């Protein structure tokens, strides 16, 4: 049994390594790292420009700005990265060749996801890490931990939307339809979901949606990402609207981290099930 598990891990690692190195050779990791780095450094220096000042103004305003902007940018990058992970191989005619090797369909899905996740993680850590060096030169050590928590939550957010992208790729029959589903997922979770939730809350007067509000927020990984960051040290929760009324008792990093991991595992499990059929 142990030999079988070892072989399974080796085959998954080979697929993941190939996917990761393909992204490195295409300079994708470098390009996204530079985008994240520029994005974070500019935000840290010019984030308070509307108030007539420039320069680092503290970790809380910085994280508030980064969270708001990351929610728009990172899910889109993750969805673009993974939407053709499976359907693209089918259209290029390489899927049958890959499956002719002694690997299972589940191994292929898991390996591709892990390789793409490694590339996305490297880009996220390199980009935000460079900005972290700039912040470390200007901020006290207590702020470093808060910024590190933001970076970890950003990595988890990227993994969630990458999992959703791979799942979409398993269900679609062409790259065109997969890209359309990816864009629809981005619009729904990033733009539409909170508007629908707020509308239902207002229309029901809070009587119906109010008691279910925390659970409904957990059904959106973008909201979990917000909650992970606004219920840290300081008063970041005062800078947000809808998620600021989330019960503090449920806003524990462990609980929210488990919820994010569930959001990663569920779409990936669905993708493996669908592709295996």
Automatic annotation (TrEMBL):
Record-level Gene Ontology MF annotations: ABC-type transporter activity
UniProt-listed Pfam families: ABC2_membrane_2 (PF12679)
Transmembrane segments: 28-50, 62-87, 108-135, 147-171, 183-209, 254-275
Domain of life: Bacteria
Keywords, sorted A to Z: Membrane, Transmembrane, Transmembrane helix
Any Gene Ontology CC annotation: plasma membrane
Keyword Transmembrane helix (UniProt): yes
Tagged with keyword Transmembrane: yes
Protein name, entry field: ABC transporter permease
